[in-house]
């Protein structure tokens, strides 16, 4: 392999067969158990007619297969990649850490600097030497064997965190919509009273209009400022939910229909989750760009963690603005309504008349947030918490806090809000 081996390292022909078989058996058993768990979960979704969640699970399995193929490809080609040589001047450009003055230091100093658990087991047979066979003087390998092994670990972390974050996203979204079930039950009990023919009101007297029309929202300069803070303190009120429900039922069902709108929202959330759980080529491209610009001194990790939070706040503000615009449009009619006012959302209410753009942005935020925290924990595991990647601990703590906050905000507030607002969306020809 061209790299230095630890004392006592042995090839497979000098390794006991019981050791080889034991390791292989353990790996095979873990893989089979994981496959059985995923298969059982898929059958559970099918038995309960959760088609969207089943398709989302299939998409997760496909993404895991892609990550596994990437890892297999790295394993097969690592010796060939390590033999690619580049000039030493190019080898020390755009480094994620400062250049080390002394390359060949003692094993104790190496362990103190990195604090890596894997080094405790003398895993030096993968560590490419400073001069790989085939590289001339003044040239260095494109990526060492040790660096390729660290990429293997990163892929494993990415696969694990991708599954974890998908589960957390769906759990928080369903937790939010579960809180609307009480309003659905109350609406079913009061259905006859709310549709009483003698129950007429002016539009500005309805709870929905009162909640969203005040002196602040009538001022253009403060309109989006108010909508920005509404997503934190009152993202979906009871009046909002009942008004959206009335708009959906009036368009798609008969007014007297006792439809379980909350259950329908849960299924719509599952349909949206099926979209945001995948990893598209554009998202892979964002990973490549992050790895490219993660240069020492550029603080790319911090800026890439701020971007998802900025986007999700903008999306949440836009969704709140759409709800407020509906209330203002109802107020401008100065009409008399029976019960709950009728609301509708059209393409013109969204950015570039493209409602799906908001879902794509939510997808980007969820993936970037998961990737950022995956990268942080991978750095911690491979190089230690106090490594050259984490020189500024203030930025590190802030980045982790932003990642956790963006994950909660996107999963618990923005994604359910998007599922609710788009139910009264009328596609324009």
TrEMBL record:
It comes from the Eukaryota. This is Uncharacterized protein. It comes from Manihot esculenta.
């Amino acid at each position: 392999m061209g790299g230095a081996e630890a004392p006592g390292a042995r090839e497979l022909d000098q390794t006991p067969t019981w050791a080889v078989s034991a390791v292989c058996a353990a790996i095979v058993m873990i893989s089979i158990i994981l496959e059985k768990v995923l298969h059982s979960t898929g059958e559970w979704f099918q038995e309960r007619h959760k088609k969207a969640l089943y398709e989302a699970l299939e998409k997760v399995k496909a993404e895991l297969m892609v990550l596994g193929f990437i890892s297999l490809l790295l394993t097969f080609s690592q010796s060939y990649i390590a033999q690619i040589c580049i000039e030493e001047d190019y080898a020390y450009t755009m480094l994620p850490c400062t250049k080390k003055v002394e390359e060949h230091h003692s094993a104790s100093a190496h362990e103190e600097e990195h604090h890596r658990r894997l080094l405790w087991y003398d895993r030096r047979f993968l560590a490419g030497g400073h001069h790989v066979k085939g590289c001339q003087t003044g040239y260095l390998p494109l990526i060492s064997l040790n660096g390729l092994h660290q990429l293997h670990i990163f892929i494993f972390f990415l696969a694990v965190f991708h599954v974890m974050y998908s589960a957390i996203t769906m759990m928080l979204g369903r937790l939010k919509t579960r809180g609307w079930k009480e309003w659905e039950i109350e609406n079913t009990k009061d259905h006859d009273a709310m549709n009483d023919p003698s129950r007429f009101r002016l539009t500005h007297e309805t709870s929905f209009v009162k909640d969203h029309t005040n002196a602040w929202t009538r001022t253009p300069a403060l309109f989006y400022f108010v909508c920005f803070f509404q997503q934190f303190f009152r993202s979906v009120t009871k009046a909002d939910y009942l008004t959206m429900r009335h708009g959906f039922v009036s368009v798609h069902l008969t007014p007297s229909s006792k439809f379980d709108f909350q259950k329908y929202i849960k299924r719509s959330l599952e349909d949206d989750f099926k979209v945001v759980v995948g990893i598209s080529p554009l998202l892979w491209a964002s990973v490549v760009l992050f790895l490219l610009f993660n240069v020492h001194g550029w603080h790319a990790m911090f800026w890439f963690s701020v971007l998802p939070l900025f986007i999700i706040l903008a999306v949440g503000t836009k969704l709140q603005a759409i709800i407020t615009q509906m209330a203002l449009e109802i107020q401008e009619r100065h009409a008399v309504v029976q019960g709950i006012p009728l609301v509708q959302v059209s393409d013109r209410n969204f950015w570039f008349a493209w409602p799906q753009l908001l879902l794509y942005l939510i997808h980007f935020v969820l993936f970037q947030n998961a990737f950022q925290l995956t990268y942080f924990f991978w750095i911690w595991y491979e190089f230690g918490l106090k490594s050259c990647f984490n020189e500024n601990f203030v930025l590190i703590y802030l980045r982790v806090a932003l990642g956790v906050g963006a994950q909660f905000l996107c999963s618990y507030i923005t994604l359910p809000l998007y599922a609710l607002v788009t139910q009264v969306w009328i596609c324009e020809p």
